[in-house]
Amino acid sequence: MGEPSRGAEWSRPHGPSLVLGLLWGLGGCIETGMLPATDSAGAPEAATSWTDPDPTLRLVGGGDPRPQAPTAADPLFMEGVVHRIDLAFEPADRHALDSDPRTDVPATFAFGDERWNVGVQLKGSFSYRPLGQKASFKIDFEEFEEGRRFYGLQRITLNSMVQDASMIREHEAYWMYGRLGVPAPRHGFAEVWVDGEPYGLYGLLETIDGTWAERVYPDDAEGPIYEGGYGVDLEDGDANRFDLQRQGDLVEPWSDIAALIEELEATPPEDYLAWLELRFDTPALFRMMAMDLVLGHRDGYVKRKNNFLLYHGLRYDRWALIPWGQDQTFRGNMGVHGNYSGELAARCAESVPCQRRLDAAVTDVAAAWESLDLHGHAAATVALIEAACEEDPRKERPCSHSSVLEMIVERPDEVRADLAEE
Fold first, then answer.
1. What is the DSSP annotation of 162-203?
2. I need a surface site. Which of 35, 159, 202, 336 has the fewest CB within 10 A?
3. Number of DSSP helices (H) and strands (E) in the chain, helices first
4. Which pLDDT score, from 0 to 100, does residue 195 have?
């Protein structure tokens, strides 16, 4: 597809000015990905041109934040824009979706002047809502035509944000992950209509699949993607419990993750950091775990071994930990030490050099909140979506942004105080 029609972007008259939207889009639409970094294991760095968004920011572990060049999908995730999306179902397909929400049914997806035949299913665990309420949707543009892409994407996710009264938690978390070079999805906003009925404001999220891998790892994009649910981690006996999101070029699914778990189980604490550097993109890994801690993510990998995916780049035999499900971020100070649940973090706590590396990453991420002006970005997001949030006919609680904005201001000093106590 080419550039979106003008009708694909919908500006509220009481939202931010056109100038703000343009400036914000120019500064914010270039999100980041993380390619395999050169390290002691000798994995070559991908031949990609990068620019540094903030030359003063230096993160532990080697390398600077490196935003990728824009892609064809960028209009979907341009800052300062709330899109409009319409879904339409035939009555029989709507009934089928009510009866079996995890199986794709056909629907018409309207984006501006464009119409697409897509597959739709409902999503969510604790946030799951049926179609009669504010449901979340998985949209597959390839369901009925192999190889078809929507601005470079095979799938998108429309999150209802019913558990987030601010409706900005995911957006701000993913924005920070992107600026820090953590391999993560991109996020935007859309107001959604279903069969002509307004369903309210949604988070528009890039799905972690093959097209995501092509964007983030353009020279190593054919690997498998696994999703870990609550209680599923890199532990003995858990390999086949991971949900295989994508097989890629892996011949025998789950064989690689079983081998990774076996290696981890056999690695003593004194060798753990060296093992991480061999098997993982460690700069991105430490930033991702540090973000979990600084964000106060009570439902994330580090504190609850939940809401994460693993990507295995087969070319360099390198793994990446990917954040997902960020609606429980910005929830307060849970402490940056102790009570690590995720296996990679818990093993790190047993290794003095690894814990020091994680502490340094926490320090740097807290500083990045300030140098990248996360508070200013969040305030602009509130200005963008506030009217849509207030008018959302299916929201389950009143809109409230103050606690998120206050935490963003207070959190860097809290983190520094926590680290100083150890």
1. TT-SSS-HHHHHHHHHHHTT-----EEEEEEEETTEEEEEEE
2. 159
3. 12, 12
4. 97
